[in-house]
Amino acid sequence: MNVLVTGGTGVLGRCVVDKLVAAGHRVRVLSRDPSRSSTVGDVELCAGDLRELASLRPAVSDAETVVHCASDVRSPVEVDVAGTANLVEAVRGLDVGHLVYVSIVGVDRIPIKYYRAKRDVESIVEHQSVPWTIQRATQFHPFVAEMLARSARRPFVACPTGLRFQPIAVEQVAIRVAQHVKAGAGGKAADLGGPEVLTLHDLASTWLSATGRRRRPLLPVPFPGTAGRAFKDGANLCPGQSSGGPTWTQYLEACHNPEGAVR
Ligand SMILES: NC(=O)c1ccc[n+]([C@@H]2O[C@H](COP(=O)([O-])OP(=O)(O)OC[C@H]3O[C@@H](n4cnc5c(N)ncnc54)[C@H](OP(=O)(O)O)[C@@H]3O)[C@@H](O)[C@H]2O)c1
């Protein structure tokens, strides 16, 4: 199949591209700046920006399936919401038979700006004419690691109380997305999460050990408001729908040697 992957230069998208190429598909990647991309090999890179409808036309031509992984957490209304409306408009009347969208577990229950935008994108996908699949996933291992690295720039690591995550290996999500491409449109897929639910405190202390920062204190802080309540209620989790795959500890062991240096 001819598959267009938006966000094919990103953390998930790169892995999805690998799975699709391995499955024998002809893959094209949409990127704002293909010259910066390390995606090579059997993949065609195509310049385009979701914010500019006209720029998407070359990328969508000949596509039979579109896997939509592109996102910008800093400009979710302009890139995710308006950009998806542009993508849907660009494929209108073409031979695209399947649109796969990757979303996040709990976007309908957790009132933060990025999640609201993701929910709006889901709604756009659900109400357009191309048959679709929406796959929600929990937080990826590298996302949790980056979140902790940002937090560890301070002399302590703030841990909102009651906050839990179910981190998942990027590869597990990519495998599931590639399965959707093969199977065809399936509507709302079952949520996909990692193999274990851990408190932020536990995630942080394992990460501090793995990165050689054992003495950095963890500071419990409150997480007020409706978003805090939704996270405490586990709206971001799907414990019954685990992907299997590597645990958080196994991910960290694969990334860092015992002295905390990145492999
Ligand atoms: N990270 C997580 O823990 C997590 C969990 C569940 C679901 N998800 C969802 O999975 C998807 C992929 O996440 P990710 O972490 O892999 O993303 P990422 O690494 O931040 O990659 C974002 C991608 O979006 C593209 N992009 C950004 N702005 C664009 C624009 N204006 N036009 C065209 N492309 C644009 C970028 O391509 P260029 O820079 O090459 O243009 C890049 O490839 C997202 O929808 C995200 O919400 C993420």
Structure in words:
- It is built from 9 helices and 11 strands.
- With 263 residues, the protein is an alpha/beta fold.
- It has a domain at 2-138 and 169-188: NAD(P)-binding Rossmann-like Domain (Rossmann fold, 3-Layer(aba) Sandwich).
- It is globular, with a radius of gyration of 19 Å.
- Bound molecules: NADP nicotinamide-adenine-dinucleotide phosphate.
- NADP nicotinamide-adenine-dinucleotide phosphate (NAP) is lined by residues 6-7, 9-13, 30-32, 37, 49-51, 69-72, 79, 83, 102, 104, 118, 137, 139-140, 143.
- NADP nicotinamide-adenine-dinucleotide phosphate binds next to helix 1, strand 2, helix 3 and strand 5.
Strand line-up in the sheet with most strands: 3-2-1-4-5-6-9
Proportion of residues in β-strands? 15-25%
Overall mean pLDDT stands at: 95
Q: Tell me about the biggest sheet?
A: 7 strands, parallel
| Second-tier CATH architecture of the domain at 2-138 and 169-188 | 3-Layer(aba) Sandwich
What oligomeric state do the depicted chains represent? single chain
Report the uncertain regions. none
> So what's the overall shape?
globular
Helix content: 25-40%
Q: Bound compounds, please?
A: NADP nicotinamide-adenine-dinucleotide phosphate
Structural class: alpha/beta
The secondary-structure element order is EHEEHEHEHEHEEHEEHEHH
Got a strand count?
Answer: 11
Estimated radius of gyration: 19 Å
Fold-level CATH name of the domain at 2-138 and 169-188? Rossmann fold
Per CATH, the class of the domain at 2-138 and 169-188 reads Alpha Beta
Gap from first CA to last CA:
36 Å
Number of helices: 9
Q: Can you identify the CATH superfamily of the domain at 2-138 and 169-188?
A: NAD(P)-binding Rossmann-like Domain
